[in-house]
């Protein structure tokens, strides 16, 4: 995971795959009996609870007094299932229950690749759209694509998703997660603590049918349908013109490889160097489908090219004027941040290493004073500026053409930062699905558990006074509930909105 730190220098830290505060010397042998799987689940939940309690910023966050209680509930709920674990699927489900009870995307455990039963499906792939479930694709003899799935075994799709999916993974309160993960009602992952649906009712063109479900191994075709159904076919990083004066900006990743980085640079330079072309546009569409976050620098640079660097900077400063960064001063967190300094120096990132080194020193000093947090002295954004309302002499002409931002349900982290930037301006309208949401806890490290089967997720800092609250997501002005999510579908909705302006 990456996170763009809004400071005097832009710092991007590689955290999920980088250093760990507790390295293990060797990977232990995996469990091979029901008793060993059960013991591993119990031990890992107990350890995850204690490590989180000792190191997570939420434990002492005055803005989140429910964190400790949620963590205790997570321990109890996870252990209740752990006592019934007999295999790898049960182990995974017990630890996932631990996660869901905390209600924070940057707390809990990440289970690694462990032996599990082959995935199964009932012959069709589902897609959540709007407030219900549709059939996305189906094998011959199955329910028709586009049919609404009304109920299964007497339960609504909402009830079934709550029971079989969101009780064990993701966050039920984030509407974007329904668009991405609700479909897993019809994927059997071997969870021993749920009951799979056996018979469902479908409606298409006012005609209702009822079919039994025959669960069988997931096919390559099913996997392909499942991989594409919540984003639709996406475009590579770049700028295209589907029709004259309508520009399509594709941003499917903020973790670009070198080829994609070059595409981002070229796209941003094109907008900056030929800005009049976009000032005269009928619309600019920014497509975030498939985006899983990364570095916020790519969307920030594009926003500066489109709206003007001065306007964007003033708007960000006004938005984050009350924002501060508090670093949790546990010994393990300090060791991790100090280790980052060495890694950054090895990579010749001396200026960034200097800043992170100052943070590590500040954390150590605060810990010596018995303080739970080190507050960055320069982390509050500069205030007292006009927030973009005025027009200094060096500002380029204002960009006022309609902007449509295509939002997928998994949009989080740096993808949400992009929405923060784009929606600072009144000519922006969101289209697609609700986004996911972010925690205020950032810059995560991971720490191995003794079993070698999972890692604890520990953020090192918390944003205090961030304009976008923890758990806050974006809702689109235009929902696209079509079962197919493709550029032509979005263009049709955008053209209709433009015609109504």
Automatic annotation (TrEMBL):
Give the signal peptide range.
1-21
Which residues are listed as membrane-spanning?
none
Kindly give the InterPro entries that the UniProt entry links to this protein: Tail-specific_protease (IPR005151)
Sorted alphabetically, the keyword list is: Signal
| GO biological process per UniProt | proteolysis
Keyword set includes Signal: yes
Which residues are in the Tail specific protease domain? 249-443
Q: Does this UniProt record's set of keywords contain Membrane?
A: no
Superkingdom in the source lineage:
Bacteria
Q: Name one GO molecular function term.
A: serine-type peptidase activity
Q: What is this protein called?
A: Tail specific protease domain-containing protein
Q: What is the lineage of its organism?
A: Bacteria, Pseudomonadati, Pseudomonadota, Betaproteobacteria, Burkholderiales
């Amino acid at each position: 995971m990456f996170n763009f730190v809004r400071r005097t220098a832009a710092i991007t830290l590689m955290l999920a795959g980088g250093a760990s505060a507790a390295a293990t010397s060797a990977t232990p042998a995996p469990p091979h009996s029901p008793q060993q799987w059960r013991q591993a689940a119990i031990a890992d939940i107990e350890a995850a609870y204690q490590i989180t309690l000792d190191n997570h910023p939420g434990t002492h966050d005055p803005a989140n007094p429910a964190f400790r209680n949620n963590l205790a509930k997570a321990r109890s709920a996870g252990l209740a299932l752990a006592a019934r674990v007999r295999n790898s699927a049960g182990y995974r489900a017990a630890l996932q229950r631990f996660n869901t009870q905390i209600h924070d995307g940057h707390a809990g455990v990440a289970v690694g690749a462990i032996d599990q039963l082959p995935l199964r499906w009932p012959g069709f792939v589902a897609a959540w759209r709007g407030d219900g479930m549709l059939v996305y694709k189906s094998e011959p003899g199955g329910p028709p694509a586009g049919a609404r799935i009304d109920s299964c075994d007497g339960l609504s799709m909402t009830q079934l998703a709550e029971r079989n999916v969101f009780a064990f993974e993701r966050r039920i309160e984030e509407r974007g997660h329904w668009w991405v993960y609700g479909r897993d009602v019809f994927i059997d992952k071997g969870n021993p603590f749920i009951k799979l649906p056996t018979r469902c009712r479908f409606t298409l063109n006012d005609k209702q049918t009822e079919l039994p479900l025959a669960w069988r191994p997931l096919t390559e075709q099913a996997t392909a349908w499942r991989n594409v159904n919540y984003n639709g076919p996406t475009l590579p990083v770049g700028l295209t013109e589907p029709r004259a004066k309508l520009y399509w900006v594709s941003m499917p990743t903020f973790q670009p490889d070198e080829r994609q980085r070059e595409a981002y640079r070229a796209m941003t330079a094109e907008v900056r160097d030929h800005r009049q072309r976009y000032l005269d546009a009928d619309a600019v569409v920014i497509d975030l489908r498939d985006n899983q976050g990364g570095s916020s620098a790519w969307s920030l640079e594009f926003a500066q090219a489109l709206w003007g660097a001065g306007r964007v900077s003033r708007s960000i400063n006004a938005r984050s004027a009350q924002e501060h960064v508090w670093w949790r001063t546990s010994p393990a967190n300090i060791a991790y941040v100090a280790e980052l300094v060495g890694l950054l120096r090895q990579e010749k990132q001396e200026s960034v290493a200097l800043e992170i080194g100052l943070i590590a020193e500040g954390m150590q000093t605060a810990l010596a004073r018995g303080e739970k947090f080190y507050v960055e002295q320069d982390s509050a954004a500069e205030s007292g500026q006009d927030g973009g309302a005025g027009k200094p002499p060096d500002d380029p002409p204002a960009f006022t053409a309609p902007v449509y931002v295509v939002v997928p349900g998994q949009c989080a982290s740096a993808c949400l930062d992009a929405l923060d930037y784009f929606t600072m301006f009144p000519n922006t309208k969101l289209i697609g699905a609700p986004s996911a949401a972010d925690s205020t806890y950032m810059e995560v490290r991971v720490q191995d558990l003794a079993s070698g089967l999972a890692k604890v997720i520990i953020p090192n800092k918390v944003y205090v006074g961030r304009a976008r609250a923890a758990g806050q997501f974006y809702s689109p002005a235009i929902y696209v509930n079509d079962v197919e999510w493709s550029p032509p579908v979005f263009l049709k909705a955008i053209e209709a909105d433009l015609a109504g302006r």
